[in-house]
Write a structure and sequence with these properties.
Radius of gyration: 22 Å
Strand content: over 45%
Number of domains: 3
Strand order of the largest sheet: 1-9-8-7-6
Structural class: mainly beta
Number of strands: 41
Distance between the termini: 18 Å
Shape: flat
Largest sheet: 5 strands, mixed
Length: 361
């Protein structure tokens, strides 16, 4: 068992540095309801009772133990952060949590307090930005080890992505904070908006769908009522004739002249099925047909697409390549980041990370 360290709130008055970190942790409760984490090829038991709420990043695991205490597993060690439950916000690279007006952040190998006077309400947290209102009615962002005030009024409508924050200011203008700069995107109130990576997609008051991308405005369709979705660099939408399209890096790509039977968009991965049940993905401007059928289950996380083929084995797609994840039939599978847990049977489980397969029995 890893060494235990107890860290009480008073210690957060100074910065805490934690040594080292693994990659792509996978927590799970086993058949006997013991709580494990898979880390660097090792299955480590953390609790003797099940854990029903946990938060996973690329290199950390936070959870509430059976006693309700807030625990952090990081760098092969378990740290008790608090006896009480904070509000927790988890992304691949950031772990933010709030006690009252205090906000704490784990970024890289540094755990520290970033704000003492935040309002007790939802934060907006991504892989590189933490946004919040404070008790002085200011709207602030924390990025790259420093905080700055964006507005002298509180903000209540916002959308955040990996590196961008979109919000409506007190005058209902749509603004974007991206890569350390602030932009006025649209001077009048919009009906809907969603931030992506270096972009924001929004619907104007008359129903036009616009995208602000790299300091340019693009009109995708007029008087749309089909809605839109955004994830990282991709914006999917339906045009005036009901066609299914994707906007990517300043270009619009028609995918289908009708609505797909199935579609999912997450973390720069888009998959869909046509009327023949053919299964497709979109990768860097190219349409790739993956299968001539639609899989029953598809998961997407951390730029990895996983699905079960018609023979019950797991396939993956990442970085433009399709590959096998399991040579055995899987009775079930789940995915966290690029770690895939699949069950060969009730007693033999496997975790596959980037082609390496580990067995848990």
């Amino acid at each position: 068992m890893a060494n235990r360290k107890t860290l009480y709130l008073v210690l957060f008055l100074s910065t805490l540095f934690i040594k080292g970190f693994g990659q792509f942790l996978y927590p799970f409760n086993d058949n006997f309801n013991r709580f494990y984490v898979f880390d660097e090829g090792v299955f480590e038991q953390l609790e003797f009772q099940p854990v029903d709420e946990f938060f996973v990043g690329n290199a950390y695991l936070a959870y509430f133990d059976p006693r309700g205490r807030f625990q952090l597993y990081f760098g092969g060690e378990k740290h008790e952060l608090s006896l009480n439950r904070p509000s927790v916000y988890s992304t691949d690279h950031f772990l933010a949590y709030q006690f009252g007006s205090q906000i704490f952040l784990l970024e890289g190998n540094k755990l520290h307090q970033i704000e003492s006077w935040a309002l007790q309400e939802d934060l907006w947290v991504s892989d590189s930005i933490v946004a919040y209102n404070d008790v002085y009615n200011r709207f602030n962002v924390y990025q790259a080890d420093s905080a700055q005030t964006l507005e002298s009024w509180n903000i209540y409508t916002a959308s955040i992505s990996n590196n961008s924050l979109a919000y409506l200011d007190v005058n209902k203008q749509l603004k974007l904070f991206s890569r350390g700069r602030q932009y006025i995107v649209w001077p009048t109130q919009v009906t809907a908006f969603t931030a992506g990576q270096n972009l924001v997609a929004f619907q104007t008051g008359i129903g036009d769908l616009q995208v602000w991308y790299e300091d340019e405005l693009y009109t995708l369709t007029y008087n749309t009522n089909g809605g839109f979705d955004v994830s990282d660099e991709l914006v999917t939408f339906y045009d005036d004739l009901g066609g299914f399209n994707v906007f990517y890096q300043g270009e619009t790509y028609p995918l289908l002249p009708y609505r797909p039977l199935f579609s999912e968009l997450k973390e720069n991965q888009l998959v869909w099925s046509d009327r023949n049940s053919f299964f497709f993905t979109f990768y860097q401007g190219e349409v790739v047909r993956l299968e001539s059928y639609t899989p029953d289950k598809v998961t997407i996380d951390n730029d990895l697409l996983v699905y079960q083929d018609i023979n019950g084995r797991l396939k993956g797609f990442s970085n433009g390549e399709k590959f096998s994840i399991s040579s055995r039939i899987a009775t079930g599978f789940n995915q966290i980041n690029q770690a895939v847990l699949y069950r060969e049977n009730r007693f033999r489980w496997h975790i596959n990370i980037q082609g390496e397969d580990y067995t848990f029995e």
